[in-house]
Specification:
- By secondary structure, the chain is of the alpha/beta class.
- It has helices at about 25-40, 60-65, 95-100, 130-135, 145-160, 170-180, 185-195, 200-210, 225-230, 240-245, 280-285, 300-315; strands at about 15-20, 45-50, 80-85, 105-110, 120-125, 210-215, 220-225, 255-260, 265-270, 290, 295-300.
- About 35% of the residues lie in helices and about 20% in strands.
- Bound molecules: guanosine-5'-monophosphate and manganese (II) ion (MN).
- Manganese (II) ion (MN) binds next to loops.
Length: about 325
């Protein structure tokens, strides 16, 4: 697949905008930061800006020093707009208009459900993370310490520190190359991945305490409403590790986590262990993602959201 990222920064490209997806996770933040730092270092004549929804505190160490822009950009045409880890146009979020105005558009991604919304797409669906895709696009000699830290952060977040099935031998070889750059990998893992705040621990405990089993123990589902989040002082940024914990429930094939995002709207996070293609399940509700990790949005109340998603999984698994 080797496509050199440098080939996209031709002479006529003077301005570049980079954007990630809504509700940015570690892979998204790591990828956009790595690309920003790479352009800044190796293409100093290009004016580059990074637009991103403000990530959770644990990921701010990446974007704070490079002054990422957390607001909707003023209309201004850029020569090239690059998205990282974005699977469809509606997931660009606040920089969507800038994308539509851009001279050229490039999408770098690893989602099997990618819709091909950009003019050019570098999509490698079986790779752990967008950061790993970017690693292959960069010349190793051009990756400095800061770029390596950002790429490594992206890789560990989407692979669960190299535990999920999307980890391949090549993923570990890429990680080894980043370790050789001298990154403080144990601090990155602890500070951006393992650490939980008091609020995050308590809210996870609440969801786990109330979770339900379906389909003869093949499916576990947990949920949370705004009212419950308020009780713990939690926001959606405090919820992202809950579905990973649910997936570890002994005997389950699928884990479902439903959380409120608007008055009558719920976001669903899906994970599977061995056979269920959750990207297909999410796709039935207008969402998408990966074979083992996907998501979608459902209108209605919390019970309805859980019921329809569990029914869809049961149908897919052929259980009742
Ligand atoms: P998470 O459950 O961590 O929010 O998302 C898991 C994966 O599914 C991520 O790769 C994410 O990009 C994708 N995903 C989550 N929600 C949606 C959605 O509403 N639409 C699409 N296309 N992908 C989603
Ligand atoms: Mn990703």
């Amino acid at each position: 697949m080797k496509k050199n990222i440098d080939d996209f920064f031709t002479n006529e490209i003077r301005t570049v905008a980079i954007a990630g997806h809504v509700n940015p996770d570690g892979d998204c933040v790591g990828s956009v930061t790595a690309l920003f730092l790479y352009i800044q270092k190796h293409f100093p004549d290009i004016s580059v800006k990074l637009y991103l929804e403000q990530p959770k505190e644990d990921l701010m160490f990446l974007v704070k020093p490079i002054r990422a822009i957390f607001e909707k950009p003023a209309a201004q045409k850029v020569d090239l707009f690059v998205t990282c880890d974005v699977s469809s146009f509606d997931r660009i979020g606040l920089a969507g208009e800038l994308f539509e105005e851009a001279g050229r558009t490039l999408c770098i991604d690893h989602h099997v459900s990618n819709t091909g919304f950009a003019e050019e797409t570098v999509l490698v669906p079986d790779v752990s993370s967008c950061a790993e895709v970017l690693f292959y696009m960069m010349e190793e000699g051009k990756i400095d310490l800061g770029i390596a830290e950002a790429l490594y952060t992206g890789m560990i977040h989407d692979s669960g520190v190299f535990q999920y099935k999307n980890t391949r031998p090549e993923t570990l070889e890429a990680a080894a190359a980043l370790l050789r750059k001298g990154i403080d990998f144990s601090s990155i893992i602890d500070n951006s991945f393992n650490t939980r705040t008091y609020v995050q621990n308590r809210v996870m405990g609440h969801v786990l305490e109330g979770c339900r089993m379906y389909g003869d123990g093949l499916i576990v589902a947990g949920s949370i409403t705004y009212e419950e989040m308020d009780q713990f002082g939690a926001t959606k940024k405090d919820l992202d590790m809950i579905v990973a914990q649910l997936r570890l429930t002994k005997g389950v094939e699928a884990a479902v986590f439903v959380y409120q995002t608007d008055e009558n709207e719920f976001k669903v996070s899906l994970r599977s262990n061995n056979v269920l293609n959750v990207a297909n399940v999410a796709g039935k509700f207008g969402g998408g993602g990966h074979v083992r990790a996907a998501g979608c949005t459902i209108e209605g109340d919390v019970d309805y959201a859980e019921r329809v998603i569990v029914a869809a999984i049961m149908a897919e698994l052929g259980v009742s």
